[in-house]
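Lab meeting, item 3. Inverse folding demo.
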């Protein structure tokens, strides 16, 4: 069990933050700064601290697994292809191509 002694930013109480119940939030790009999030046992409000340098290094060294944030991205197969956008003529042509089709029955080929 790893505990860090901090001062609550809301009630100014000195609290011991249990790292098993706290979240260490970092960017994906390596930096010596992070945010520590937990609930204060004194005032029962959420608390956030920006931590830098040695404390981040020590927490990572003792095995705290950070929550790494990055921009959301789609897998390659779900991304739109690099094609020019549809025009009105494309839609009209598609409409004319579909005109002779009366119905589509999935079990008939």
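The presenter then showed the designed sequence:
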């Amino acid at each position: 069990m790893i505990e860090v002694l901090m001062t609550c930013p809301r009630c100014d109480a000195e609290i011991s933050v249990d790292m098993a119940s706290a979240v260490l939030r970092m960017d994906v790009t390596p930096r010596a700064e992070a945010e520590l999030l937990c609930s204060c046992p004194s005032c029962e409000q959420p608390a956030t601290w920006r931590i830098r340098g040695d404390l981040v290094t020590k927490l990572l060294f003792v095995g705290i697994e950070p929550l790494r944030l990055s921009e959301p991205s789609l897998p390659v197969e779900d991304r739109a292809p690099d094609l020019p956008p549809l025009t009105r003529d494309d839609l009209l042509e598609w409409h004319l191509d579909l005109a002779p089709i009366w119905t589509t029955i999935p079990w008939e080929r």
